[in-house]
Amino acid sequence: MKKRILAMLLAGTMVFGLAACGGGDDKKPEASNPPAAAGVAKEDLKVGFVHIGDEGDMGYTYNMVLGVKEMQKNLGLSDDQIITKYNVTEDEKCADALNELVDAGCQIVFATSFGFGDYVTAAARENPEVQFCHATGFQAHEAGLDNLHNCFASIYEGRYLAGIAAGMKAKEMGNPKLGYVGAYPFAEVISGYTAFYLGAKSVYPDVTMDVIYTNTWNDANLESQTAEALINRGCGVVSQHSDSTGPATMAEKMGKFQVGYNADMISAAPGASLISTRIDWGIYFTEAVQAVLDGTEIPMDWSKGYADGAVLMTALNEDIAAEGTKEAIEAAEAGIKDGSQQVFAGPLKGVNSNGDTLELAEGESFAESDVAGGKTSAPYFDYIVEGVTVVSDQ
Fold first, then answer.
1. R_g of the chain, CA atoms, integer Å
2. pTM, 2 dp
3. What residues of the chain score a pLDDT lower than 50?
């Protein structure tokens, strides 16, 4: 099962080769490199971050920066102890940024975009004295390096709850067609929009959903255009796995509705944005940096969810939300917290890009990001389920 999951991650969730950075065969051989037991004195600590965007996106990187600030406050670190590289592309510039942070004396480095994976793995292999933490990735599970770690949260739980808000609104409108702006056809994105769709379907069984990929994480104009294309296809409520507020503002412009990601988008589109879900990255950043200070182990895979406070919902826009939305979310929320509400629950059928099929009967469920079960912290649900249509173009 583990081999199948890793193969699925490699083949089904990526559209570009993992050989982008040259693999690492010509680098130092893999070795066991445990962190120093003595830890690091707080005054000597330096923490590095490599971000794909900047906080001006008001989405993904903005939310990451909120987590950095939370960690900094929790641990009492000064500004000069945090070294940040913004707007780093998923290519050799990532390798350069990682090397610069190592040269600056960082004992721990966080890389916050999926496409940084190869470069983070190579940097970890070359710098065994530095701890590297890669958000949304999976390579720590197979690299055999004690200083390489992956982290993500069970954001699919928040997506499901946000989908309830979308489903309630769609039902009120009498329009069962939802739209979704997806970044890439990766499991991270597919898992999220499937959870969103299933949340909507739980309160409005007639819903269907169209998905269009932008093939970029952050392009406000393209995200706006994609949302417009979805609305022109008849979608009354749109959501997104993309970094900007473009879909929210376009939905408002066109008199439709939107569900956001990473940040409360009501201020950007008060007449359209219903609710958002986000990850509280401050929890992980604090735990990982504290481990470096203490000289203790950082988990190879870290994933916490809604019950742990790692997945959050922003305030519901009650001015435009359908009647009963708050109560419907609260009912499902209780089940998410106590484990009685499974997101990927049967009956459910789907197929992934490899042709593998999923068929869950009533009472069965798919355990996403099951770290305790020996799987990666990154999402690996990559099935296109019945009722979801991936549109090939705009």
1. 20
2. 0.86
3. 1-37
